[in-house]
Amino acid sequence: MSSTRRCLVVMGLLGAAWPLAAHHSASMFDDTKLVELSGTVKALQWTNPHIWLQVMIDDTEWSLEGGSPNSLSRQGWRSTTFKSGDEVTVRLRPMKDGTPAGQFVGAKFAGDGRTVGRWE
Amino acid sequence: MSRVSLATPIAAVALVLSGAASLPAATARAQAPAALPDWSGVWAMDGPTIFDGASVQPPNGRSGQPGVREFPPYTEEWEAIYRRNIELVEQGLFPDPISACGLPHGFPRIMNVPDVYEFAVTRGAVYILAENGPGIMRIYTDGRAHPPAEELWATYTGASVGRWEGDTLVFTTISLKGASGNDVIVDRTGLVLSDASRATTRMRKIDDSTIEAQMTIEDDKALTKPWQVTKRYKKQPAGTWAWDYSCGENNRNPVTSSGRTLTLGPDGQPLDRVTE
To answer: CB-based contact (8 Å) between B45 and chain A?
Structure first.
């Protein structure tokens, strides 16, 4: 993607719905905020206990944590759902401390407009 | 050699091969396979990982969210322990013991985990297989009693024996670690029980797509009266798979000595702005 954009969408009540069942405390994520970023997929780590989507936003690598591959596969995900080089817009609940990571909420592919996860 | 003398050793061999000859007499009470209920398939807990959804406040509160709690009939001492844990949740310092990858959920938490379950009903035992964790709980239904106290030691899922009352599995669980080792919780609101906890669980299929477990938990240290909690499990579509779940495969969320859960980058280094 030649240009990236970043916007912060504050949706205070979104915290009422956790997008994934983690094997750890989710206290590091700010569940009052939903951030939308556009960039290029670097890798998808299709591993337990969580998948990790690595996305390059400008020159920064973001780490987005999702559910387990087990549960996601039952929701239709595949290990090939994201490929290196895919141009995507992702939504996430960001880390409270501002580091480039967050809890994956959903994604939209730039090429064909497909969406994955929550994207309403 | 008469036919009788031939038949006797054959029968004896058959008994040995089946294992029946080496089991106590009580084994004879194990349910015949034809009478066992069909709990086949893959199941998932109905609702979020709040252990006692009937008492949670605020209603529909989620485990691990600050300000969410349940109301077990705690003694004053254990209510104070729970309140301290709730404060730690609010500070982001109440780690989940399973985050270390390797510890089991323990009972009763194993009845309250995400992902899917299988319930393996056999003639002499029922096995609760939780994909998450992964977790295994064994419930012997071959007529045995709990081991005598001197043969027991506290474990994560304890010792469970049960019987079938028609289509209902009734089992009692004793010898639990509870919070004694600070490595077992009931859910992420900060809910814990003591090593004196024990439970009687009644589990049955209430319709073709629902299994219900009614737990009556007693705890002479932590509770003032029995605590009843009901969990339900919904059958997943035919052909659903349960998969291998290895928590240690790529755990990017280790816990610090102070209880803070970190987030690691792809290089294995913490992303968090925390120096402890």
So the answer is: no
ipTM (interface pTM): 0.83
HEC string of B116-137 equals EEEEEECCCEEEEEECCCCEEE
What does chain A come to in residues?
A: 120
Query: Residue B261: which of A21, A27, A43 has the nearest Cβ?
Result: A27
pTM of the predicted model, to two decimals? 0.85
Are B81 and B186 spatial neighbours (Cβ–Cβ below 8 Å)?
A: no
* Residue matched to tokens 């989940």: B96
- d(Cα B224, Cα B215) in Å, to the nearest integer? 16
- B27 phi/psi in degrees, rounded to 5: -55, -25
Rounded CA separation A30/A95 (Å)? 6
Write the pLDDT tens digit of every residue in B151-202: 999 999 999 999 999 999 999 999 999 999 889 999 999 999 999 999 999 9
Give the pLDDT confidence of B15-69 residue by residue, as tens digits.
333 433 334 444 446 666 678 999 999 999 999 999 999 999 999 898 988 899 9
Strand partners, B203: B169, B213
Cβ(B61)–Cβ(B47) below 8 Å: no
The single-letter code of the amino acid at B257 is S
Residue of chain A nearest B237, judged by CA positions: A74
Task: Establish, for the pair of chains A and B, how many residue pairs have beta carbons separated by less than 8 Å.
Answer: 117
CB-nearest to B62 from A18, A45, A99 is A18
CB pair distance less than 8 Å for A47 and B249: yes
